[in-house]
Write a structure and sequence with these properties.
Elements lengths: L47 H6 L1 H13 L6 H20 L8 H15 L2 H6 L8 H13 L3 H8 L9 H15 L4 H14 L4 H17 L2 H14 L6 H15 L5 H11 L4 H18 L2 H12 L7 H14 L3 H13 L7 H22 L7 H13 L5 H19 L2
Helix pairs in contact: 2-3, 2-4, 4-6, 4-8, 6-7, 7-8, 8-9, 9-10, 10-11, 10-12, 11-13, 12-14, 14-15, 14-16, 15-16, 16-17, 17-18, 18-20
């Protein structure tokens, strides 16, 4: 049991109802699955030949399957639930003497933390279970899967993973990182570094790398953030999880304000240059749209312009880039009128639903700004101003360059009190 499988949570270390943990073994065939529930999956009848092998071999097979996710095997992704159901059935039907071997208990913990669900851990941690190190690990893993973070932290936070076999060490370290990332991100990053060193080339490493990139982005270590982001884009660009990574990565980049200074922009450029032109275009579009939602005007404009460099003139992608740019431009009085004309010229029939929503929100905001400009010489009374603010707050999606920069500074403080 060398490697560990991670649960299929696309989220970073904290966001999912079922935490992520174990990850699989080297390239073979792996997959991602939604976190398992407490209810056992309908499992095929146990194979007598498979049962001779035992939990260690069964979980190793799962890890080999799961590692294929990191190289983009859709077939592995689709077949994983079947294999997991079979393994769960075999684990639950295993005779009591199987669990006298601590390696089998370790394999069951890895299975559960790899997305296999809590059923086997409930059985191994019954009140009459022997109080062994493995049983205590199983209790901590079960608490984590059940969402009892305080209990999981109490049981697992002081575990020295250096004393564990690599596969189990990776699963436990991933869990520890998830439990500590908010209160102690430095420790979480150290744990993720250890996971990556323990299990190179596996889905476990892929998962740890993704999580560490986002933890670094939040913590401000931009040099290491850049190095690991480039590493991920070079080595795991075909992972089943790469699409989710890019969406979250786009959000992270907008938060880091890479257009803020030359050094940051140079780092941003080096990261983007790792992608093929089409992938670069798509990520720029993601960044531009996210920046509009997050109120990052400069980033939205920069990313839209970059995306346009990779778009065919009349393509959907060009239409999207123009939409995002115009949505960012309406927040400035100097570009408001031209941005409004661009928004009106967008062919909504070509847009996906979420971009139609953004277009409608931008047009609604532009209409409010236009009405504010028309009556700027006569400041609105308090009640009408309050209604406008409520309407702006209701617009979707996101903050729409925070509600058109708070209605362009309340129409630039009513055009400086009507240009006195």
């Amino acid at each position: 049991m060398r490697r560990i499988a991670r649960s299929a949570l696309g989220a970073l270390l904290t966001l999912c109802p079922y935490p992520v943990c174990a990850d699989p073994e080297p390239p073979a065939t792996e997959t991602a699955q939604p976190p398992a529930s407490d209810v056992s999956r309908p499992a095929p009848a146990a194979d007598p030949q498979a049962r001779k092998a035992g939990p260690v071999e069964w979980v190793r097979t799962l890890q080999l399957l799961q590692d294929r996710i990191a190289v983009g095997s859709l077939a592995a992704h689709e077949s994983q639930p079947v294999l997991m159901a079979r393994i769960e059935g075999d684990l639950l039907m295993a005779p009591p003497e199987v669990w006298a071997d601590r390696h089998n208990v370790q394999a069951a913990i890895v299975f559960a933390l790899s997305g296999g669900g809590p059923a086997i851990l409930r059985r191994l941690t019954k009140k009459d279970s022997p109080d062994t190190p493995e049983t205590n690990l199983a209790r901590g893993a079960l608490a984590y899967i059940d969402g009892q973070e305080a209990e999981a932290s109490r049981l697992l936070k002081d575990i020295d993973t250096a004393t564990l076999p690599p596969t189990l060490a990776g699963a436990i370290a991933l869990t520890q990182a998830a439990l500590t990332v908010n209160e102690n991100p430095v420790r979480a990053i150290d744990l993720l570094d250890r996971v990556r060193l323990l299990l190179p080339g596996t889905l476990v490493e892929e998962g740890a790398l993704r999580r560490e990139i986002f933890a670094l982005g939040q913590g401000g270590d931009l040099k290491k953030f850049e190095v690991l982001a480039i590493q991920y884009l070079r080595r795991f660009q075909h992972s089943i999880y790469a699409g989710n990574f890019r969406q979250r990565f786009a959000f992270q980049l907008t938060q880091l304000n890479f257009g803020q200074d030359e050094a940051r922009f140079a780092a941003f450029t080096r990261i983007m240059n790792e992608l093929a032109p089409e992938s670069r275009r798509d990520l720029y579009l993601l960044i531009a749209r996210t920046a509009v939602q997050e109120g990052k005007t400069g980033t939205a404009l920069m990313a839209s312009d970059k995306a346009l460099l990779f778009c065919a003139p009349d393509s959907l992608e060009a239409t999207q880039a123009q939409l995002y740019r115009a949505a960012a431009e309406i927040v400035t009085l100097a570009t408001f009128q031209t941005a409004l004309q661009k928004l009106k010229a967008v062919d909504r029939a070509r847009l996906p639903a979420r971009d139609v929503q953004l277009l409608d929100a931008a047009l609604s905001m532009a209409d409010q700004i236009g009405r504010g400009l028309a009556r700027s010489a006569t400041p609105p009374d308090a009640e009408s101003s309050k209604r406008a603010q409520v309407q702006a707050a209701a617009d979707e999606p996101g903050s729409l360059i925070p509600k058109a920069e708070a209605m362009i500074g309340r129409i630039d403080q009513l055009l400086r009190k009507s240009n006195p």
